[in-house]
Amino acid sequence: MSVVDLASATVIDLAQPMRTGMPQSPNHPPFRMNLERRHGDRIRADGGSAANEIIVTGGHVGTHVDALAHVSQDGQVYGGLEAASLQSDQGFSTLGIDTFEPFVGRGLLLDVTRVHGVDVLPAGYEITVEDLESALAAGGATPRPGDVLLVGTGWSRRWSEREEFIGLRDGVPGPGRVAGEWLAALRPRAVGAETIAFEYIPAGKGHATLPVHRTMLVDNGINIIETMRLVELLDRGITEFGLILNPLPIMGATGSPVRPLALLP
Ligand code: UVW
Question: Ligand 1: which of 16, 166, 196, 222 to mutate, judged by most atoms within 8 Å of the beta carbon?
């Protein structure tokens, strides 16, 4: 896209709105915001006043990117590095979210809802390799290494149903271990979805095991984006787009909120 094209591009916001009480993985400290100073608390001599807030939050809240340092397996993070030697109270000396190079490139949406002819996949549904192959074929684009691959489940439509969205009782749809390996073999820069975890979570299993996190973060160095708002892409049948993905450069953190933007000519 040239600069002129960019100025006239349609921009689609792929982030969920962030507010206290939004759906939250039980694995993480929640997001809390409070308006600490209100207009009128302090009024300057010229009549001016300012309001501001205090925000206390985990790194994995709202729409966010998992850094490679987020998950280890048998004590090792991506590249066979010993996790314990990299971490301190200041975070990680490498593989933190600060090492994520801002992404400007191509995004592909593998819309599994379209494959099944539904708006929303059922809770606890395991997305298979066949589902992903069919979604890719329906979208029509061939993935290239370095693309960001998003999996559409329709679950951003359920954002306001807090307990159901978290899925502790009924589960969450997502790729199973084999489908995760199939995605990783396409060598994407990152993978993402609408759900609380980029995983298939069966009913009643909570967030006990996260095998796709291991495949992506530990075995292949592929970042994960969770809790995306894909409803507009799904409704409009958009499966290929420019994508800007730029998490906050919080030094050594294992994740960061992000506001991904899809760009269409
Ligand atoms: C989960 O708890 C699964 O979310 P994250 O991947 O951010 O840890």
Answer: 196
Residues 178-237: tens digit of each pLDDT? 999 999 999 999 999 999 999 999 998 777 789 999 999 999 999 999 999 999 999 999
Is the CB of 191 within 6 Å of ligand 1? no
Return the ligand 1 atom nearest residue 71 CA.
8
* Nearest in space to 253 (alpha carbons), one of 90, 14, 57, 19: 90
Whether this model's pTM surpasses 0.70: yes
pLDDT tens, position by position, 148-173: 999 999 999 999 999 999 999 999 99
Taking the chain, what is the end-to-end CA distance rounded to the nearest angstrom?
8
Looking at domain 3-24+59-264, what is its CATH homologous superfamily?
Putative cyclase (3.50.30.50)
All structural domains of the chain with their residue ranges? 3-24+59-264
